[in-house]
Amino acid sequence: MNNSNDLGVIITSALETMKAEEGEKFDLSKVNLAELSRRTGLSRQKLRKLKKDNFVVKPHGLTGKQKTVTVLTGYTSVIDQLLKNNVTNSEVILERLREYGYTGGKTSVKNYIQGHKDLVPAPRQIVSPQGNRGRRYSSEPGESYQMDWGFVNVDTSSGSTYQAACFAMICHHCGMRYIEFFPNAKQENLFIGMIHAFEYMGIPKYVLTDNMKSVVIERDNMGNPIWQRDYEIFMKTLGFRTKLCKPRHPFTKGKVERLVRFVKENFMAGRVFSNITELNIQAIDWCNRQNDAYHKAVDCVPSEKHQAECLQIARELDRTIEVAFYLCPERRISFDGFVNYEGRRFGVPYWYTERTCRIMRKDYEITIFSSDLSRILTKHDVTWARRDSYTRDQYIKAEPEEFPTAPVKVKMFEVGQEIPRSGFEKFKFEGDDWNE
User: What is the mean pLDDT of residues 62-85?
Assistant: First the structure.
């Protein structure tokens, strides 16, 4: 019995069997098509066509040709751009295509990736060994988080390019992650990113980081860190401690470095956004999906394990007035009534007479507070344009008036105006004689 699926092999085997049974009487031109159909399972119509070619199976005329329109038509440019950015994970590419309306399956995507591997950049070169084998740093639930910065170049529709900073923090025990984007990596943005991450994941005992300028100044003769003054106050205010890691030593801070690389290769590649608020909304949605998915590296669903174990140790962040000061950086008001924040200028009302104020960006709104956060001065829409954003009562509405800039020395003389006499004055209307 022949178990092959090849049509030529099936027909040849059946004809050889019939020839062995009939002997010399067997004639290929007079073969019994009904018997051959029973043996091969093919229809008589199909066998008649094959009989014209002496039962030689020829390839189909469209063999090797591809359809001009497929389920991927219109989406190949997205896949090509991701492959050029070294994104080859079919799950990530399929998720990105779903955002553009793709309704096909993953098999078509995998086949396309397999046929266009030439678009993927060459792998990095093999480096020399790093030395002896080491042991990775481990910690208990809620004991430590890792944080770091990542940077990306952003191309605008006008043709210019600017650099954005991505703050990343990850739980060392369960892999719970948080990312947020800022225009730069200043210390005030570091504090804002850490507070938002603590609100998302809780406050641990330790935070692991490298030798950032906004964290540590230098080390003393004993090797102990000399903290940056504002960062040391920030640690005491929120109630956590910091551990510094060795440079270029992934055994201690490798998880957050891998997270930064994962964000660059999967979240940032081909990402389109209108302003930094929309980008952060997409980032938190991405974090929620990643935290709710199973990860083989930690052998768990991060959000479930973090809720069950880490949050039993990590503390919840309290929104005190001290925390609010960190979320609202202080800015000096310029002579023309503007404050500079994230590279843009926003107007302040004229009736606010202090020299400084505080400003905060939340969602699609910029809020300007008084220096002591006692009242809201004004609000602006989040804008990524370079033009200034004015407020309604930024200037006094009275008519402008010019005053002399030098002492006035020139004098003139004004004479009093004489009132002309009336013609009725010659008549004497007053007195008793007027009534006679």
Answer: 81
Using a 10 angstrom Cβ sphere, with 0-12 exposed, 13-18 middle and 19 or more buried, the burial of residue 156 is exposed
Cα distance between residue 150 and residue 239, in whole Å: 26
The answer to whether 267 and 286 are in contact (CB under 8 A) is yes
Question: Residue 430 corresponds to which tokens in the numbers above?
Answer: 């007053």
- Nearest Cα neighbor of 207 from 245, 180, 177, 181 is 245
Region 330-348 average pLDDT: 90
Degrees to nearest 5, angle at CA 276 with 273 and 280: 90
**Counting beta carbons within 10 angstroms of the beta carbon of residue 328, is it exposed (0 to 12), middle (13 to 18) or buried (19 or more)?**
buried
The 10s digit of each residue's pLDDT in 168-177 is 999 998 999 9
| Other Cβ atoms closer than 10 A to 122 | 6
Q: How would you label 174-189 residue by residue, b for 16+ Cβ within 10 Å and e otherwise? A: bbbbbbbbbbebebbb
Q: From residue 301, how far is each of 65, 260, 274, 423 by CA, in Å?
A: 45, 19, 32, 109
State how far the Cα of 36 lies from the Cα of 336, in Å rounded to an integer: 97
Beta carbons within 8 Å of 49's beta carbon, 6+ residues apart? none
Which residue in this structure is represented by tokens 């002579």? 335
Structure tokens at 200: 């998302």
Question: What is the reported pLDDT for 307?
Answer: 92
Q: What is the DSSP letter of 263?
A: I
DSSP annotation of 214 reads T
1-17 mean pLDDT: 77
343 phi-psi bin (left φ>0, alpha ψ -120 to 50, beta other) = left
Please compute the mean of the pLDDT values over residues 32-58 and round it to a whole number: 85
Q: Coil, strand, or helix at residue 147?
A: strand
- With beta carbons less than 8 A apart as the criterion, state whether 214 and 231 touch: yes
Pick from 106, 99, 110: nearest CA to 269: 99
Question: What DSSP element (H or E) covers 51?
Answer: helix 44-52
Residue 264 tokens read as 């660059």
Cut 0.90: pTM above it: no
DSSP string, 373-391: SSSEEEEEE---SSS-B--
